[in-house]
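Researcher: We're teaching a course module on how sequence relates to structure. For the next exercise, students receive a sequence and then see the predicted structure as tokens, so they can try to spot secondary structure elements on their own. Here is the exercise chain.
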Amino acid sequence: MKRSNRLIALTNHFLDNPREHIQLPYFSNKFSASKSSISEDLDIVDEMFQHEGIGHLERVYGASGGVKYIPNYSEKNAQAFIDALCNMLEDPLRILPGGYLYMSDILGDPHMVKQIGRIFASKFSDLNIDIVVTVATKGIPLAYAVATHLNVPVVIVRRDPKVTEGSSVSINYVSGSSKKIQTMVLPKRSLPDGSNVCIIDDFMKAGGTITGMRSLLAEFQANVQAVGVLAEADDEEDERVVDEYVSLLKITDVDIKKNCIHVQPGNIWGPRKG
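Model: And here is the predicted structure for the students to work with:
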């Protein structure tokens, strides 16, 4: 196989299998090439990944040595995407009755969701995450995007139990914004005890849903390593009940009378206490 062909095959393999440790003999046998040739190929792929700002190859030397692709979206690329997202959301036509903001088109766009997942995965790449957890329904596409780049499973918390999922654990929690009592359910076999989890959600106002998920996950002795939300509301009337989280966007104002919206980047470039 020509080197150009090997480079394409290697790049495709790493993009499809992020964070998966592969020993060099695997590639040598697959491409009928020497380890030295494969090593040179990996140097080229690593250089281009870093040049494009999409990650790097992590090499391990020795008897059990190998390589794995670590997705890591560059800050420059992430900032450009988030700025464009802010401009999109400031369109007055997105204002819905009650001061809500229409975001379903973004959550339904595969390219945008993929980019959002890549940014979150980059932010959490140094953490030991086993599972991504979200609550039905709008957070599901985001959770799968993040999990794809972290190469881990997704677990979905629901409002009602499903007979097809067997016995479940349920809790009642108080919504941070509406102060209403709501229910969350998670099947017992969906999450191994002691798992390291990352919570992903599409929107956070006061943080009651995130707090509810934390309480539910505590029933499984799960360790919440990170919390990521696409957008947070800056509402002084509602006291934030979540302390640590990462947000991509911050909706600072939705003025129905003036028909205008103000959106700015979230706290992703630095932790902020809620």
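Model: If you want an answer key for the exercise: The chain has two domains: 3-71, 75-265. DSSP finds eight helices and twelve strands in the chain.
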